[in-house]
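hey can u check if this looks right to u? its 539 residues, i copy pasted from the old doc so theres a chance i mangled smth
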Amino acid sequence: MNIKEEIGIILKKVLENLDIELEFDILIDIPKDKINGDFSSNIAMQLSKKLHKNPVEIANLIIENIKKNNILEDVKIAGPGFINFFINKNYILKGINTILEEKENYGRSNIGKSEKVNVEYVSANPTGILHLGTARGASYGDNICRILEFTGYDVTREYYVNDAGNQINNLGMSLKTRYENICGINSDMPKDGYYGKEIIDIASNIYNEYKDSKLNEDIKFFKDIAVKTLLKRIENDLNDFRVSFDVWTSETNIRKSGKIEESLKLLNNLGNIYELDNAKWLKTTRYGDDKDRVIVKSNGEYTYMVPDIAYHLDKINRGYDKIIDVLGADHHGYISRLKASIEALGYQKEKIDIRMLQMVKLIRDGNEVKMSKRTGETVTIKELIEEVGVDAARYFFAMRSLDTQMDFDITLATKKSNENPVYYVQYAHARICSILNSIKERIEIKEYETINSEYAYNLINKVYEFKDIVNQASLKLMPHYITNYLYDLANLFHTFYSKEKIISDDMKYTLERINLIECVKITIKNALSLIGVEALNKM
C-alpha cells in the first residue's frame, strides 16, 4: 500500500475535473506534527500563480471537489494554503495483509522500467590491497546497485582494471626488485616503487616456486604475476565485504582491441581534435571544460584520458541508457573533462552521472586512527571487517551522504547497545523474531478491529512509507535515505513494544498485533538487504 500515491491520484482527478492542467509534479509530504494530518500538499500554493487566485481559495476549491472515499477521514486547510489529509484508520490497517503476502517483494517498484544502467565503482589500481577509503566507495556502489535493481532497473556492476601504464610498469619493477633481493641481489627499488608487504609476499611466493630461475625474466612476467595476484586478493576482500561485480574490464584489453583508435577517429570526424606543438588536443572547452586537453603527446604517447574516453565509448556502445561512475575525491577535477569528452563523442553529458567519494577518518575513543596496528600503514578493508564486522561497516558507511567527509567511529560501531544504530535496528528485527517464534498457532485475520493506539498507527504508517523512501533513494542515488528510515522505523517499533501489550489471552487481539509487527520485520529485512546488512533473527 502506498497512501501517498493514492492521495496523488485523488488530487490529479480533482484537477482534471476542474480542467486544470498540471505542469509540475504534485508534492505530498508527511507533516512533522501529527496535528497537521498524516499527509500534506502545497498544491494550492503551486497553482496560485497559474490560476491568479489566493492559495486558500484554490485549496477550498480542491477540497470541495474531493469525492467521498474510504481512504480519507478528513481534509483540512492550514496556514497559507496547505491541504492536510487525515487517513481513515480502517483503511490504514487493510494494508497489513498485503505486506504479509508480498514478503521479500514488499517495497519493490518498477520506476526504472528495465532501463539499462552501468555502475562502475571501486576500480582501484591493482598495485596493492584495498584500504579504508575504498571500502566507502565499494559500499556506496553496491548499495545503489541493490536499490536500483529493487526499483526495476537492469543493472550491471563493473570494475575497471587499470592494468596498463606507468603504475603497472613500476609495480612489475618493484616486484622484480623484491625477488632479486630475496635471491641475494642487492637491487634498489625503482622511483615511485611499491613498498607494501604484499609485494614482498608475492616475491617470496615466486622464489618458493622457482628459486632463482626467473632472474632473467623480463618485466612483463613480474607485471602479470603481480596484477593477477593482487586482483584476486582485491576480489576476495570485496566478496568478504559482500561486494561483487558482473564485469571486470581490463585497460590492457581496451588498448589492444583498437577501441582507442576508434574513439580518436570518431572525435576527429566530429571536428573535435586539432594539432598544436606536435601534440593532439581535444576541444573540451567547446563542451564546458576550462581548457582544452592534450590527448596525444608530441612523442606519440596517449595521455591518461585517452583509454578512459575509449572505455566510456565502449560502455555506451554496449547499450547502457545511463552510466554511473563512483570516483575518489582526488578525481574532482576530472569531472568536467570526462563529461566534455562524452559530449565530444556526440552524446548528451547527462548520460553519465559521476559521484564523488569524500574522505573517511577512523575514530577510536575520540581520537583519529591513522595507521594499522598490524602493518603501521593505512587500515585495510580486511582489518576493518575483522574489528567491527561487515554489518556495522556496511551500515555506518551507508549512514552518510557520499559527498560529505565522514568520521567512522569504531568505538560506537562495536558497541552492543542502543547507542549503536546498526545494533538498534538489528535488535528490533531480532526482538520481533523472538515474539513471532513464541506464537504456535496462527489464524487468518481479515479485519483489524482491536488496533486503535497512536503507537500502532504511527508504526504501520512508517511501514507504508518504505516504498516511497526506496524510490527516492533510487532516483537520487542516496542510500542514506534507507538508514535514516530504518532508524526511525526501529524507534517506532521499540516505542510500540514498550507502550502496548502484544501477547494476551485474546487470540484475535494477539494475532492482529503479531501481523502488525511481522510487517515491520519484513520491512526491516528488505531495507537492510538494500545496504548489504544482515537481518539477525537473534542477538
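DSSP finds 20 helices and 15 strands in the chain.
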